[in-house]
Amino acid sequence: MVFSSLVFLFIFLPITLLLYYLIEVKYRNALLLLASIVFFAWGGVSYTVILFISIITNYFVGLLIDKYLNTKRARYLLALGVIVNIGILVVFKYANFFIENINDVFVIFNIEPIDYENIVLPIGISFYTFQALSYIVDVYRGETKVQKSLTKLALFISLFPQLIAGPIVRYHDINLQLSNRLVNFNKFSSGIERFIIGLGKKVLLANTFAAVVDSIFAMDPTNMSSIVAWLGIILYALQIYFDFSGYSDMAIGLGKMFGFDLLENFNFPYIAKSIQEFWRRWHISLSTWFRDYLYIPLGGNRVGKHRIYFNLFLVFLLTGFWHGASWNFIVWGLFHGLFLIIERIGFGRFLEKLWNPLRHTYVILVVLISWVFFRADDLTYSISFLKTMFGGSKLDSELWMLNEYFTNELVIALLFGILGSTTIFLLIQSKLLKLSEKFKDIFIGRAVSISFEVIAGFGLFTILLISIMYLASNSYNPFIYFRF
After folding, report:
1. What is the number of other CB atoms lying within 10 angstroms of the CB of residue 454?
2. Contact 103/113 with Cβ under 8 angstroms?
């Protein structure tokens, strides 16, 4: 089940919210846990068994670590917990990849390949595994108290708003909310607003871009013009941003409806002026997870420069691999890691002296090239696509080919997508709020304030209505991060 589905919007969510606010407060965690299990099991009951194993394992490992805290036994228990969590992830996410590559080597040496059945990737396994790991590590470090309630820990790991696509929630950020959280009208209404904005991003923008992107990436790059290739990757950059940030917005909004405050996961990454800044703005929960649980334990910035470069290399190798069991994702991660190292060596200081539009152009160009590896099915296609982008072709003069893609729907989505990936709408909102505040005691201020609220409310209702119409009339509703 995904948030952008009619089943979720008209059956699952209304029933869950109704029951949540009707029952006594002491039963709400149990209800949310049950709802989360149903939500997760919708994608396959067998997946739920793996989730249960993760919950139970980390519950008892956490208790044992707390019991033997500050002893060698606690360290061994932490190692056991890490091995079990990573082991589950390796088996269900990476086993196919490893066996396929081993078989490729076997073929070279005329060795009989390993016979195996393809393992289906359980949804959300990368997200809830990292959440569980953060819990037992924080207990070991003494940064959080152990959770003795199995229900509360299970709810932390499986809470449905962030279960299948994040943001990756740290236990110490949410532990108090598991026992006592604020629920009021303002928070609930802001949650609805955030959810609708996220739904519009996903359905009206990301899905519109996805249809064109899929058609372009289904083509042979050698039969594609450079301008079509550039169009494809630009639209993909917008698609993945609005797909994933839209889902994060919906998750944060849903959290607020149930009283939870989930941390932000995106902060306008395409306005970054360096790759380092890009990663402070893109998928924030993942980048900070790797920073706190891998980069800093490896020494962070406290070691020699060559060790720092190695740490960055390793972190982004694993960042790429976390996204998927494919060489394409590994290359994507290393590509970003390479530019982070280059910026740290000295290019970052050079960047700071440049005109800001040039810095933005540099970031966008690097990110667009990297997205080719992220989107393409394999390295061969990636290289061929990049050659078309930068090498040109005999079809370059045939601009009429773009007419096939530039429908009125795409043009409107592209306009809102480009503006929406910047802070311009927030600036407009801020100016209007300041204006109404400045004149709040006179008629013009009250008029501006009321007008703004009416326009905002009408806009949200329109986004919701059109999104539902799109979902009802169109079965095309892909979700990129479902495979991670």
Report:
1. 10
2. yes
First to last CA, the chain: 15
Taking CA atoms, 422 is separated from 281, 450, 479, in Å, by 12, 26, 23
Q: Report how far residue 459's alpha carbon sits from residue 162's, in angstroms, rounded to the nearest whole number.
A: 26
* pLDDT of 398 above 60: no
pLDDT (average), residues 155-168: 88
- Angle (CA) 263-433-442 rounded to 5° is 150
**Can you read off the two tokens belonging to residue 324?**
């998927």
Q: What is the DSSP string of 123-170?
A: TTHHHHHHHHHHHHHHHHHTSS-----HHHHHHHHH-HHHHTT-----
Is 360 an active-site residue? no
Structure tokens at 60: 């008892």
Separation between Cα atoms, residue 403 and residue 374, nearest integer Å: 26
Q: Give the span between the Cα atoms of 23 and 38, in whole angstroms.
A: 18
Closest by CA position to 325, among listed 85, 96, 82 = 96
Whether 396 shows a pLDDT value over 60: the answer reads no
Query: Which of 381, 285, 294 has the alpha carbon at shortest distance from 331?
Result: 381
Q: In the numeric block, which tokens belong to residue 445?
A: 């201020």
Are 429 and 449 contacting, i.e. CB atoms less than 8 angstroms apart?
no
DSSP string, 263-295: PP--S-GGG-SSHHHHHHHSSHHHHHHHIIIII
Lookup: tokens for 37: 């299990």
Whether residue 478 contacts residue 5, with contact meaning beta carbons closer than 8 Å, is answered with no
Whether 237 and 442 have beta carbons less than 8 Å apart is answered as no
Secondary structure letter of residue 120 according to DSSP? P
| Residue of 172, 283, 323, 336 marked catalytic | 323
Closest C-alpha to 480, from 282, 237, 289 = 237
Q: What does the pLDDT look like over 179-204, one tens digit per residue?
A: 889 889 999 999 999 999 999 999 99
State the burial class of residue 97 (Cβ atoms within 10 Å of its Cβ: 0-12, 13-18, 19+).
middle
Residue 330 clears pLDDT 80, i.e. is over it: yes
Predicted local confidence at residue 189, as pLDDT: 94
Lookup: tokens for 371: 């997205």
DSSP 111: P
- What is the pTM (predicted TM-score) of this model? 0.92
Nearest Cα to 126, choosing from 195, 47, 37? 47
Dihedral of alpha carbons 331, 214, 167, 343, sign: positive
What's the token pair of residue 257?
A: 């409806």
Q: Which of 127, 76, 159, 142 is nearest to 289 (CA)?
A: 127
